[in-house]
Amino acid sequence: MVERLETRIADLGSAIVAFSGGVDSSLVAALAARALGHSALAVTAVSPALATGELDGARHVAEAIGIAPETITTDELASEDYRRNDRYRCFHCKTELYGRLTEIARRRGYAAVLSGANADDMGDWRPGLSAAEDHGVLHPLLEAGVTKGQVRELARELGVPSAQKPASPCLASRIPYGTPVERTTLERIDAAERAVKALGFRELRVRHHGDLGRLEVGGDELARARRERHAIERAIRGAGYDRAEIDPKPFRSGSLNQLPVLGAATP
Asked: Which of 157, 190, 215 is the last residue of a domain?
């Protein structure tokens, strides 16, 4: 599989990787570094929706896998369509990102822009894939039918440091559709998650529900979270929430996609 993926990427001649530092984009970046050498570039977008620590993590991964890293600043909050936070929010966010990356590729002579989308992404609501299509972004893992489990296996095989890293999508993904995305809300979510992580929890989300911060933790940490409920609630309230609670169900990616949608509209 590695050889097949490397051949696909090598045939491009050069590429920019949309690089968050998560396992999916890290695997694509590692493959691009192996296949293209100095003709591969990993670009990380910095915005208020990027959780604290993610940029440092991305830089560490880039150094370990031997790909040149760069950062850009994106301004999705300037878009009313994004701030409105209907179910196409990710479309507007990715439109901003891929628009910037394809412009860099055009200006500097890179042949393609690559994403870390994998086959499992087809089973969830992913409007960002439509934005990728609009900008001609390629998805090597998705094209090859690589699942999330296989992504982690291949990342371990190639020695990618983020092989076991929990997913960390943008902070706006903690806000229910229909609730506007504001900088202060993103900052509150970030502070709450940092406070809970400081207690030693690893896989978590603080879902934003107005003055309530609801914590989801991984199934293997849920029993401990219940035992330490008072410390967790203090941590979340200390980040600016009036109320805090622990979701009785374990963390599940995309859980807000299952809630009623407000203000939905086509992009």
From this structure: 157
Strands (E), the chain: 15-18, 40-46, 68-73, 113-114, 204-209, 212-217, 243-246
How far apart CA 153 and CA 140 sit, in angstroms, is: 16
Structure tokens at 196: 């809970």
The tokens of 148 are what? Answer: 């999330």
Backbone angles phi, psi at 70, to 5 degrees: -140, 160
E runs forming strands in 19-139:
40-46, 68-73, 113-114
Q: What is the pLDDT along the chain (267 residues), one digit of tens a residue?
A: 999 999 999 999 999 999 999 999 999 999 999 999 999 999 999 999 999 999 999 999 999 999 999 999 999 999 999 999 999 999 999 999 999 999 999 999 999 999 999 999 987 788 999 999 999 999 999 999 999 999 999 999 999 999 999 888 999 999 999 999 999 999 999 999 999 999 999 999 999 999 999 999 999 999 999 999 999 999 999 999 999 999 999 997 755 555 444 344 445
∠ CA 41-45-47, rounded to 5°: 165
136 token code pair:
């001609």
Same domain, 86 and 201: no
Please report, for residues 46, 127, 216, the alpha-carbon distance to residue 239 in angstroms, rounded to integers and kept in the order given. Answer: 22, 31, 16
Contact 50, 57 (CB under 8 A): no
Dihedral angle sign, alpha carbons of residues 20, 215, 129, 147: positive
Domain hosting 220: range is 182-255
Do 204 and 134 lie in a common domain?
Answer: no
Rounded to whole angstroms, the Cα distance separating 249 from 56 reads 31
